[in-house]
Design a protein that fits this description.
The complex is a heterodimer of chains A (277) and B (170).
Chain A (H helix, E strand, L loop, with lengths): L1 H6 L1 H20 L7 H34 L2 H36 L7 E11 L7 E4 L12 E3 L4 E8 L4 E5 L6 E6 L5 E5 L8 E5 L11 E4 L11 E9 L8 E6 L8 E7 L6
Antiparallel strand pairs in A: 1-2, 1-12, 2-5, 3-4, 3-12, 4-5, 6-7, 6-9, 7-8, 8-11, 9-10, 10-11
Chain B lengths: L1 H16 L15 H12 L2 H19 L5 H17 L7 H25 L8 H42 L1
Helix pairs in contact in B: 1-3, 2-3, 2-4, 2-5, 2-6, 3-4, 4-5, 5-6
The chains are: A alpha+beta (277), B mainly alpha (170).
Chain lengths: 277, 170
């Protein structure tokens, strides 16, 4: 049998190469849905990734606990001081809250929220150094769809690029293929925030107009002009501005607010009425 | 029996490679465990078996987490083929030979992947950072692989022995 197959070695290799090139070409284009094989493969991996990530996090937390034991006493004193100052702040904020509620009622203010949020756990990461993606434990069975925005309470994380029944892959904003519409919070000028920086930790903000002014310390937020990200979600802070050369456009280096190495839970932005809060 | 163990090894490596918390980071870059596995397989297994193993490992990675299905499979298969072809002509028990072949094998696979991805639209700037990443991952794989070769080789011999024993005794 094997000899018979080996006799047809060359035609078999040619057929295999043609099939492989065809498959790569087909999967390289933007697809609304992943194939059945990919869906099954990804869903099969979910429990293993989830379990391994849990074990890994448990070990890391224990190591961190041991490390913090040394500084526990001084840290405790600092926290007690912080609690005292926060208690005073809470009292003040309660007054503001009451006042705010009263004013809202007086103005008949409608609290319009355009999106629902779905909490998802990060169970995997891209195996390659050339891609910055994460894998979440929620898929289309939970209402996640391709193109949805993923955020944390700190800021923008990325966009869902593929979904299986029980998992989804998110392209991080630091990936070379990522580009997000943003605006400078202080001036309202529009910028394009791109990933793919050599350090894989920062972003590059490019102005969409020649009159745009960006300074170190400026905060970049989402513009809301695209259909992906809601408006005013923090992206990052400008840490450096490359000088204009020969009257050409400049670029600003932005440090994202999200620490992509420490992501544990994220929020998937769903259209309103589509998911759990 | 050995095919079940091969499957489990691929699954374990895939889970380790895609773990949610970034574990081992070498000069800011993640080591490519799956690539290291297929390079070691090319050194330990018979050539045809190593090529099929590399194809299956690459396909598993593509299906589970890849962006281009069969790109890793093709790259891994070609790398295993070349690695097996080259290592047969040298004394693989020599540490330096193992180190060099693993370094070159990893670098070649990374370059093939980047060229393949660029051909299908995922282009990347060939900056110093890109070359540094290739070098760092190659160096890591070379050192770790050279150390892992002997224990894995012994493990493989034992696995083949039990496989044959099971086959003959039913």
């Amino acid at each position: 049998m094997l000899e018979h197959i080996l006799r047809w070695k060359v035609p078999l290799i040619i057929v295999l190469v043609v099939i492989m090139v065809g498959t790569i070409h087909y999967t390289s284009t933007s697809r609304l849905k992943i194939s059945l094989l990919e869906g099954v493969g990804r869903d099969l991996l979910v429990p293993f990734q989830w379990a391994f990530t849990k074990v890994q996090r448990f070990v890391l937390h224990q190591v961190e606990k041991v490390q913090t034991l040394r500084t526990l006493k001084t840290r405790n004193a600092e926290l007690e001081e912080l609690v005292r100052s926060l208690q005073a702040e809470v009292l003040e904020l309660r007054n503001y809250k009451r006042e705010n509620e009263w004013l809202r009622e007086a103005l008949d203010f409608k609290n319009e929220r355009e999106h629902d949020l779905l909490v998802a756990e990060v169970i995997g990461r891209s195996p390659s150094n050339w891609e910055s993606t994460i894998i979440l434990n929620k898929g289309f069975a939970h209402g996640v769809a391709k193109g949805m925005a993923v955020v944390t309470n700190e800021g923008v994380v990325g966009t869902v690029i593929s979904v299986s029944r029980y998992s989804s892959t998110v392209l991080l904003i630091i990936d070379a293929q990522s580009a997000t519409g943003g605006l400078v919070q202080s001036t309202g000028d529009l910028v394009l925030v791109e990933g793919g920086q050599p350090d894989r930790e920062t972003l590059m903000a490019r102005p969409l107009s020649r009159d745009t002014v960006v300074e170190v310390g400026d905060v970049i937020v989402t513009s809301g002009l695209s259909t992906v990200f809601p408006k005013n979600i923090p992206v990052g802070e400008v840490i450096a501005v490359e000088p204009r050369q020969q009257n050409l456009s400049f670029a600003a280096v932005v440090r994202p607010f999200v620490d992509f190495n420490r992501l544990e839970y994220v929020l998937v932005v769903l259209p309103q009425g589509n998911g759990e809060n | 029996m050995k095919y079940v163990v091969y499957g489990l090894i691929i699954l374990l490596t895939l889970v380790l490679q895609t773990a949610g918390v970034p574990g081992v980071v070498f000069f800011g870059f993640k080591p490519e465990f799956m690539l290291l596995l297929i390079l070691l397989a090319a050194m330990i297994m018979p050539p045809a078996e190593a090529v099929v193993f590399a194809f299956c490992a690459g396909l598993a990675q593509d299906v589970a987490v890849g962006r281009f299905i069969t790109l890793h499979a093709g790259v891994f298969m070609l790398t295993a083929l070349l690695e097996g072809f080259v290592i047969q002509r040298f004394y693989r028990e020599n540490f330096i030979v193992r180190l060099c072949s693993l370094f070159i094998g990893t670098a070649l696979a990374e370059l093939l992947y980047l060229l393949g991805a660029a051909s299908f639209g995922l282009s990347r700037a060939w900056t110093a950072a890109t070359w540094w990443a290739i070098l760092a991952v190659s160096a890591f794989n070379a050192f770790l692989g050279a150390l892992l070769y002997r224990p894995l080789s012994k493990l493989h011999k034992r696995l083949v022995y039990y496989h044959e024993l099971l086959k003959r005794t039913g």
